[in-house]
Amino acid sequence: MENLHDKRKVYDKSQLIESEIKQNPIEQFRDWFLQASESPMISEVNAMAVSTVEEDGCPRTRMVLLKAYTHEGFIFYTNYNSRKGKAIENNHKACLHFFWPNLERQIIIKANLEKVAENLSDGYFHSRPKGSQLGAVVSPQSQEIPNREFLEEKLKDLEKEYENTEVPRPDHWGGYLARPYEIEFWQGRPNRLHDRIIYQLEDLDWKISRLAP
């Protein structure tokens, strides 16, 4: 067994105090997201973990890319027939997680998910590179397939079919809007006395509290 007892670091880059935070968590997210975007050490600032609960009651987590955020919430796109899509259909709650280790920050978002309007899914789908559009059509996401060649052959056929024409968005592919009802901002601090500020939606207002680390 490898001993990992000494695998630790000192967190001392910043602080998170009540007098400096925004009263709305989306505005606070925007500030942190823009700061992370400016860091040369973060290659995919919009990468986030999405956890859903499957039929056996076990959470399942995967990395996806945040594609937009508004005052309503956070938007990402996927195959509605995938494992995550089926889990969301059965349980509309999910947890989003951003981790930016170079800034010693993480954000945990509990949200209710709903499909975005079809015109939004259409617009984003057709903004993607054609190869990505074809990939969305080719892949029966999360289903068992015989081998890699199965996908590559399907891709070749579709490349010929849509060589000189627009790729239609599949009905089973589109976006989700995650409407948050709880957002926690975590800032690493020395001696493991980390800052944890949590926003909880109560009626139409956000309650702000500090949690012990």
From TrEMBL:
Metabolic or biological pathway: Cofactor metabolism; pyridoxal 5'-phosphate salvage; pyridoxal 5'-phosphate from pyridoxine 5'-phosphate: step 1/1; Cofactor metabolism; pyridoxal 5'-phosphate salvage; pyridoxal 5'-phosphate from pyridoxamine 5'-phosphate: step 1/1
| PROSITE patterns to which the protein is assigned, alphabetical | PYRIDOX_OXIDASE
Give the EC number(s) under which this enzyme is classified: 1.4.3.5
Reactions catalysed, as given in the entry: pyridoxamine 5'-phosphate + O2 + H2O = pyridoxal 5'-phosphate + H2O2 + NH4(+); pyridoxine 5'-phosphate + O2 = pyridoxal 5'-phosphate + H2O2
Q: Where is the Pyridoxamine 5'-phosphate oxidase N-terminal domain?
A: 41-156
Q: Where is the signal peptide?
A: none
| Stored InterPro entries | Pyridox_Oxase (IPR000659), Pyridox_Oxase_CS (IPR019740), Pyridox_Oxase_N (IPR011576), Pyridoxamine_oxidase_dimer_C (IPR019576), Split_barrel_FMN-bd (IPR012349)
* A GO biological-process term: pyridoxine biosynthetic process
Give the cofactor binding note. Binds 1 FMN per subunit.
Q: Which SUPFAM superfamilies does the record match to this protein?
A: FMN-binding split barrel
Protein name (record): Pyridoxine/pyridoxamine 5'-phosphate oxidase
Species, as recorded: Chryseobacterium jejuense
Q: What is the lineage of its organism?
A: Bacteria, Pseudomonadati, Bacteroidota, Flavobacteriia, Flavobacteriales
